[in-house]
Structure formats: C-alpha cells, structure tokens
Known about the structure:
Layout: H1 5-14, H2 28-36, H3 50-66, H4 70-75, H5 80-86, H6 88-97, H7 101-112, H8 119-137, H9 183-200, H10 202-206, H11 208-228, H12 233-238, H13 257-279, H14 291-294, H15 298-305, H16 311-324, E1 339-340, H17 341-344, H18 346-358, H19 363-380, E2 381-383, E3 389-391, E4 395-396, E5 409-411, H20 419-428, H21 431-449, E6 463-465, H22 488-491, H23 497-511, H24 518-529, H25 541-547, H26 549-563, H27 569-575, H28 578-585, H29 589-601, H30 606-609, H31 622-625, H32 640-648, E7 662-665, E8 671-678, E9 683-689, E10 695-701, E11 707-715, E12 725-731, E13 736-742, E14 748-752
Antiparallel strand pairs: 1-4, 2-3, 5-6, 7-10, 8-9, 9-14, 10-13, 11-12, 11-14
Helix pairs in contact: 1-3, 3-5, 6-7, 7-8, 9-11, 13-29, 15-16, 15-32, 16-18, 18-19, 18-20, 19-20, 21-23, 23-26, 24-25, 24-26, 26-27, 28-29, 29-32
Amino acid sequence: MCADRSILFAWVRNVKPRAEREPRASCRVTAELARQRDVVFGGPRMASTPTAAWVFLTALLVATLTAQPAVSAFAALPDATASVATSIPHLIERAGTTEDEMERLHLLRQLEARSDLDAILRADLRRLLPVVDDWANGKSRIVVDTSRAAENGYLCRFITSRVRPASEGPVHPPELSSGSPLRPIWCFYRGRMLIWQVIQSGPLLRVKESRDRYCGEGRLLLEEARRAFPSNRVVRMYLGEPIPWPKPHPDDPAAPAWANLQREGLERLAEVIHWWIAERQLEDGQFGGGWGDDVEMWRWWIPVMIAFDDPMASAAQERLSSGMFEQPHMRKGFTSRVTDVEHSNEDTTDTILPMMHLQPDDPVWKQRALRLAELMRDRWTDRNERGFLQFKSIYFSVDTVDTSKARAFDTVYHPSVIQPALLYWQRTGDPALTALFGEWLEVWIDAAARADNGKPHGVLPSAIRWPDGGIANPDRPWWEPFSPGHNDALYNWPGATRLMTSTLLLAHHLTREETYLEPIRSMAALRAKHRNSPPGDTGSESWCAQKMSGFLSDALGKYRLLTGDTRYDADLRSDASGYVRFRLTGERASIESALRHNAEAFRSNWEAYTSEMRWTDRIMSFTGNFLKYLPEAAPPTPSPNILYSTATGDPGNPLVFPLNAVRWRTPPRDIAALVTESSRATFAAELFHFGDQPRDLDAELFLLAPGEYEMTLTPADPIHSPPLLRRTVRVEGPRVRVSLELPARRLCVLRVG
C-alpha cells in the first residue's frame, strides 16, 4: 500500500480517459493492488473502456484510503461514471480548484457527510472546516462586538494574532496529519492568512524581517497548494501571476487617450464598488471589516460617488453613515471609546463628510458636523502655558480626555477629527468657527517658527506637548515624538502634515490673513534652498526639505489655482501631481501617464479588490502592501485620486479643504470629463460621451462667485464649429446646477465664464 496517500491523489488527478492520454498503468502500487484483488483491465470483471478504467482506478483509490475491499466499494456505486464526480479525490480536487469560497465549503461538507471516510481524514476535515466556514460564510453569522472600533467584522475577525510564522509559536489553523490529501487546501488558507497579516499590519509591513517571515512562509504554502491545484487562479495571483480582469474595456478610436483611460479606470472602480455593495454590505450598512474600518471605504469611492452621481453607491453610503450613528457608542455624537485620534475620528469624520457631499442641505449632517466643533471647544482643547489654544491629548472620547504624559499632545493629525466642521466652515464662513479654528491654528504657527528640541526653524512639527506647548517629546527626537511602533507612519514627521497645511490654507482662503501661510511659505523656502542638496542628517533642514515635497505640493497646488500667484510654479512643475502640472502648462502627457498607470492597475487581479479582501480599509492595498515585495514584476498600484482630480478640478487631497469645482450628476458609465479651468470666475471642461445616442446630464458647479455667466457647449473638433448650446447662467449661492445634452462620440468643451 502507498505510504503517502497524497501521492495517490496526485496520481489519480492526472489520470484521464485514453482518448485524452494514456492511463498511467505503470503505477506499481495500483498494479499490485489490482493483482491482489484479482481484477484485470479488459477482463470479464470490467469493461475495457477508457472511462471505465479511469473510474475503476478512482474507486480503487477510495478503497485504499478507506481500507474497504475495492470491488465492494465499487459495487456500492450504482453508476460507475457518476461515482467519479462524487469520489473522495474528485471532491477534494474540485474543492481545491474552485475560486468560489461557498462552493468549496459545500464540497467539503459533502465530503464530511460521507460514511466511508477513514478516521484520520475525518479528523483532518474537522480541523479544516472551521476556517473554510469563516472565510466563506461569516456574513450569515454576524457577532455583535463592541470592544473595538475596527477589525471585528465577519471578514477578518477570525484572522487573529494566533496566525503567525511557525517559528514564532503554535501553528494556526491547526496543522493536518502528515501526508493528508487535504493538506494543499490547508496550505491555501494558512498561506493567505499569513500574507493578510502583513497587508493589514503596518508594523509587520514596514519591517523587512517580519514581512519576509510572514510572506515567505505564506508563499511556500501557496506554492504547495499550486502544485496540487495548478489551475486555481487565486493561488496563482498570490504567487505573482497577473490574472486578467473578467470584463474587457476596449478603447473608442473616436475618443482622446485621456478619455479612454479615465473611462476605463472609472468603470472598473465602479464595478468593484458595486460588487462590495451587492456581496458584502449588510442591512445595517456595515461591510464586514468592522465599523471603524468599513467607514473608510468612501475614501476610494470618491471618484465614482462624489465626482459623479452613482445611485447605488450613494444609497450604500447613506446606509453605512446612518448605521454608524445607530451604534450605542455614538449616542452623544462622537465615540465613547477612548482611542487615539486616528481611530476616534473615523466613526464621525468618515460618515459625516461623505453625506455632506451627497446631501449638502440636510440639517442632520450639518448638526453632526457642528457637534464636533462644540466638543473641540468645550472638552478637547484648552489654553497651554504659552497662552495658545491646543488639543490636550491624542487619546480622547466624547466625554474623556487622557492627559497622561505619554499621550498629552496635539498633532498634525488632529484636523482629521474636525474635518466635517472644517467643511462646514469652508461652505459658510461661520464667524464662530473662524474664531475657534483661528485661535487653535495660532499654536501651530508659533511652533513652526520656533527651533526647539532640534527642529529646524520654519518647519511644522508633528506634535506639540500639553500643557507647556513644547515641541514633541523632550526625551525623544523631534521627528519621532512617540515610542517606536506607535503608529509611526502617522505621527513620525512628516506623517500627516498634509492635513495641517491644508487647514492653514483653508484659514487663509476664508480670512485672507497672511499669517496662516507663514509655515507653508517657510517650508517652501527650505524646499527650494535644498532642492539639489544631499539629504543630510536625520532631522536637519536638508533632510526635511527632501521629505516635504508631497504634502507641500498639495497645498501649493491649491494655493496656485485659488490665487493665481506664480511664485511657486517652478516647485510645482517638479513636485506636483500630474494634474497640477497639466493645469499649469496645458501639457497632457502627465495626466495621460497617471491615468494609464491607474487603468493598468485595474486590468488584473479582480479578486484582489473583491473576494480576497479581508480588511475593508485595505481594499486598494494588495499590490502596494504585498505584490510589490515579490520577485515577480508587480502591476501598478491603483491611484483613484487622478480620476477625482481630472473629473472635478480639485488639484489635491479631497479630505481637507476640497476644491472640487463640479459634480457631474450622471452615473460614471460611458463618460469622461477633464476639468481644464476652475476658479471663482471661470469653469471649463472637456467631455466625451461613449454612447450611441445623445446623453442628457446635469452638472453642479461649486466654486463660481455670485454673478451672471455665459455657458457654452462647443465641439472640440473642428475648432470653429458653432456652439451646440449657449445660455446665460446666474449664480446666487454656493452652487448652481446646469443642464446640457452631450452628442454621441464627439469631444466637446463646456465653458462657463
């Protein structure tokens, strides 16, 4: 008898009817079993057909594994051919090959129901089934867990800290018996769970040694799974093979390159969003990653949901946002859980903000935004020993502030907790908010101007101590205010400085006070001074200058389009996004390159954005957090922000001080839009409709100052074609809605000015 049953299963998987290949009758083990049981191919006991031979071999294998006589096992099956489909090896083969988790669970349940399983195989199945059930079926077994803000949803709750490399502790899920035919399926699950720990965990991801331990073992296990199930596309995807997207998106030769690329990115992003709504969202609004992570999903929905009008996405967002405010810990308008500012803000900021875009006149969401300003004024801030208003801690809740020494800091991440109130301020200019936010920003202007604790003069720090107003932590370097591992990516400089520079720019925009620009200008001067210098020592001027290009160009790009001030154009041409460079120069190669990069990211690995995702705040992270570290060439990482910028005219990050000039009140299908001008005086965009019939659509314009404007819609080619539309538009409030009809497959220019 075979010492290793997996060898037998592997052999039978490769045996096909003679019409396809010759039976591997050289297997000495099977031949010997046949001799002992007096069974001969082609003899009187069995018809000499290829299918019959294959069926017999399968039945013989079942008999071997179950210690039953081969002939009696075979005779128990009423139809020999049909028996193959329900044989033990065939069920295992199908379970390992399918990419459908529910189908795999169903097949293994079929296997569990068999009476002819030997005790060892049944014990292995008992160990394996719980993780298969969790991976496939968690949606039907929702558990209420109020212990944490996030990571407690049905998609990821079972992938706990117990899942770690074999060298670091007991193996989880429990390992199967040696040589088990179910081992390749076990490898499939354990390998993915190890990899997902890295994708989800920043501390594991950022440290090469830990990343290599987890992903290295995960890959070895998945390679074992691939040897058993070579056609499984999910296994192949994890091992670096790009798996083509299910639905093609061919180019339209009548459309410009940017339009084809933007459309491809928009439609594929919409497909992912719609999959998540249809397959993952529960009736109460959550998506399976835990409330605190689910609410972050809107950040990558923005091009579809905010730049355009997608009814399915809008309805799903309303269910999620409203569902969050039904949770017991949100009864007072903010979380009652004391967590750090990154996590405490998500339950409100990431639920109120999208609704303020979708339903800007709804008083409920406005009031919820103002509640955050109230909490900031009355509970979270106070005057420090230098006389400035500042946040007292990075850890707080609706009614508790933790001012212990290790947590008593204001940080550049704190604008996140009041983002909805900042948007309300941006739209209304509310004088009470001007006073509150203006006083608070003074502490940051003061801190930037000082050179305490080794920080260069003119650079915004990451953190300001409470209550003395000092820079960072006196026991640590200014650029690393907290102990290692304490959310380094956010709080270590430059971290979330982008949030603070955007807030300072917003304050300048509303008040015209030059003081708010001082930190931005001083850092821009350092960037220009050291542009071509070596990085220098950590924490030095030149080191800072090399690290500030991203967040600084975001603020300077918005400043340039708001004011027309050209003094930073040289910096922007070097550092800014492709869309900003396009707006400065008219040169299109930069946006086409960025749009192509994004489109290529969505041409492969559909499962990486859908069914394989376990953490809902990592849906766009499979490539960036995993594939790019493999020896195989990785596809690009998605960058939905280029879709948002080109379609709306917002040159930077949309979360703080959004400058989206337009919302196209039409679904993001068969359409492309490129905003070429946006200011308080003008708006212009190129539009291309991919359909065969004219398309009616509305557009909501946000940035135009009150007054009377002329709106025209003109074919872009030929240049001298008469306008298809010409009318007067009157702007009386913060936004105006206009209607137009786009011709089919013809590039047009919409202009309001």
